[in-house]
């Protein structure tokens, strides 16, 4: 609003930017909307008219009923939550300790160690999967009938793969925290663990929330690791189940659309509900670090 109460017209450059961003948003969201729409259609109708909106007699929940009755969706969700929850808590714990040590302690090789952490973000998962798989096989926790061991074999590489990102984000935020509060806690008799859990972690909640959300979502969507570690059907996580759906059901596009919807919608809900923590955590770490 201007001083005389009239709304200012956006500049030409800003208008063009809004138009470009709107078109980009449409091209990004439309495929998801199209999948959700077809999830409520009969598979025969999808082949003849995949772009209509299902209303009245054309709308059906049969695809979702078939997904729950035939695909063990609930078991796959359980496995995904166990894996992603384990990865999230382990990364938050160990990355927090590492970030605190890198910021607050001076030791020989500190800068070199941090450089290795940053370098760890440059290695894609497929470049390390062979030695990782051989190590897990040596430990005897992969290619077994045990559900717990298979889920552990999936979680361990994901924990290692997410550590670099988490440490970098947390280091940037911990650097911004005033050391006076930690010194005051030390003078009151707190040890290093009490200082970390009672002073540092409460102050660094935005960055820990960012790490938790990104780590959980990356683990949830990680099909590559699951292809090597989850062999049996009762061990499949939700993304592995979706990856096998085509070979299992062929051209049942209604069922495939319903399964994709069941996989994607929870992720979108989590992101929409917690997006302010993602932006706040990343911004705080970047500006203050």
Folded structure, characterized:
This protein has 289 residues and is mostly helical. It has 2 domains: 12-64; 70-288, MetI-like (MetI-like fold, Orthogonal Bundle), CATH 1.10.3720.10. It has 13 helices and no strands. Helix 7 packs parallel to helix 13 and helix 8 (179-187) runs antiparallel to helix 9. The two termini are 35 Å apart. The model is unreliable at 285-289 (pLDDT under 50).
Domain count: 2
Note poorly predicted spans: 285-289
What letter string, H or E per element, gives the SSE order? HHHHHHHHHHHHH
Q: What does the main sheet amount to?
A: none
**What is the arithmetic mean of pLDDT?**
84
Tell me what the CATH architecture of the largest domain is.
Orthogonal Bundle
- Which structural class do the helices and strands define? mainly alpha
Q: Kindly state the number of beta strands.
A: 0
Strand content: under 5%
- The first-to-last residue Cα distance is 35 Å
The number of helical segments is 13
Could you name the CATH class of the largest domain? Mainly Alpha
CATH-level-4 superfamily name of the largest domain: MetI-like
Supply the key terms.
disordered C terminus; 289 residues; 0% strand; MetI-like fold; mainly alpha
Short description, anyone?
By secondary structure, the protein is mostly helical.
Q: What's the layout of helices and strands?
A:
Blueprint: H1 12-39, H2 43-48, H3 62-70, H4 73-104, H5 110-119, H6 129-139, H7 147-174, H8 179-187, H9 192-203, H10 205-220, H11 223-229, H12 238-249, H13 253-288
């Amino acid at each position: 609003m201007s001083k005389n109460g009239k709304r200012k017209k956006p500049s030409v450059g800003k208008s063009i930017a809004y138009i470009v961003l709107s078109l980009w948003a449409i091209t990004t969201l439309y495929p998801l909307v199209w999948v959700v729409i077809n999830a409520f259609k009969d598979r025969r109708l999808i082949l003849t008219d995949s772009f209509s909106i299902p209303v009245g007699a054309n709308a059906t929940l049969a695809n979702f009923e078939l997904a729950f009755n035939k695909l063990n969706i609930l078991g796959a969700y359980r496995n995904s939550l166990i894996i992603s929850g384990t990865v999230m808590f382990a990364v938050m714990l160990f990355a927090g300790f590492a970030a605190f040590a890198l910021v607050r302690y001076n030791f020989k090789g500190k800068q070199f160690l941090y450089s290795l952490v940053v370098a760890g973000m440059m290695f894609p998962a497929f470049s390390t999967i062979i030695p990782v798989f051989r190590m897990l096989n040596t430990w005897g926790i992969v290619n077994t009938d045990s559900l717990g061991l298979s889920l552990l074999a999936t979680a361990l590489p994901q924990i290692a793969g997410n550590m670099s990102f988490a440490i970098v984000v947390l280091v940037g935020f911990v650097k911004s925290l005033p050391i006076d509060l930690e010194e005051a806690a030390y003078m009151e008799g707190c040890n290093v663990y009490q200082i970390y859990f009672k002073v540092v972690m409460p102050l660094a909640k935005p960055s820990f929330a960012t790490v938790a959300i990104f780590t959980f979502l990356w683990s949830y969507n990680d099909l590559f690791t699951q292809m090597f570690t989850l062999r049996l059907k009762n061990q499949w996580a939700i993304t592995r189940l979706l990856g096998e759906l085509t070979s299992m059901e062929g051209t049942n596009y209604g069922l495939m659309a319903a399964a994709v919807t069941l996989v994607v919608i929870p992720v979108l809900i989590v992101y929409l509900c917690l997006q302010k923590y993602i932006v706040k955590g990343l911004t705080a770490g970047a500006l203050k670090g």
